[in-house]
Amino acid sequence: MDKVVINLVWLYPDILNLHGERGSVQAFQRVCENLGITINIKRVNEYSEKIDFKNTDIIFCPPGELKVIYDIKEAISKQMDELKEYIDARKYFITIGTTGCLLAKETIRENGEKIEGLGIFDMTCKERKTVIGDDLHFVIEKTKQEIIGSQIQMIDYELNNQEPLGTIIYGYGNNNTSKEGARVKNVIFTNCLGPVFVKNPWWAENIVMNVALNKMNIYNENEYELENKSFTSTKKFIKEKPKQI
């Protein structure tokens, strides 16, 4: 029986480097190690580098400054046909925080400037005049997993005819509605920081298992005692907090 190998591409780690989300890459490493799965992590460092969509299972796009979104969009647009094939194959493309703008139709800056996105999501982004921060607790619609983390909101996300990723239990979410993030097939956007996959390794495990099951029928029960205790404690704390905007 061949060993399962998962290939993860980490996009522009020195450019998209906010909120410590590089820790999420390490979370994927740990989950794969626990499951006995080999994971190869490839950094795409420069806009001139092509993404090997054909031999990639997960693309991880952490948050960065809004000013770099246009350049990233221009770089990826050169491989748009390959990206569409990648999405249709139900491979994973994960964006966090500000990089949700990359997958939207457009982003409207505070000064009125408009930045065109890749248009994967039927979503419009608007830069906020003020930045807000708080805890974030939501349920993923597809898997019914509860996710807890934090949120530093510089952009409001307005879903048009777009499926959200989840439903808010506590927090601001996309724009102080009940909706959190967005999803098309296995293209995922979330506002949740943490790093999100460090605080919620069960979500990383679900993604890894879905990728692995497409390659080989495997199952390995795994528990995260420390993270579960932290999750339960934070959930209780959030439940008792008054909502603040």
Alpha-beta content class: alpha/beta
The arrangement of helices and strands along the chain is EHEEHHEHEEEEEEEEHHH
Low confidence ranges = none
Cross-sheet strand order for the largest sheet: 2-1-3-4-12-11
**Gyration radius, rounded:** 17 Å
Tally the helices: what do you get? 7
How many domain regions? 1
CATH class: Alpha Beta
> How many individual β-strands?
12
CATH hierarchy: architecture: 3-Layer(aba) Sandwich
User: Mean pLDDT across all residues, rounded?
Assistant: 93
Helix content: 25-40%
Mind describing the biggest β-sheet? 6 strands, mixed
- Residue fraction in strands: 25-35%
CATH topology: Rossmann fold
Shape: globular
Oligomer: single chain
Give the structure's gist in a few sentences:
With 245 residues, the chain is an alpha/beta fold. The protein has a single domain, classed as Class I glutamine amidotransferase (GATase) domain (Rossmann fold), CATH 3.40.50.880.
Helix and strand topology:
Layout: E1 5-11, H1 22-35, E2 38-44, E3 58-61, H2 69-77, H3 80-88, E4 92-96, H4 100-103, E5 106-108, E6 114-116, E7 123-140, E8 146-159, E9 166-170, E10 179-180, E11 182-184, E12 187-190, H5 196-199, H6 201-215, H7 225-239
Parallel strand pairs: 1-2, 1-3, 3-4, 4-12, 5-7
Antiparallel strand pairs: 5-6, 7-8, 7-9, 9-10, 11-12
Helix pairs in contact: 1-6
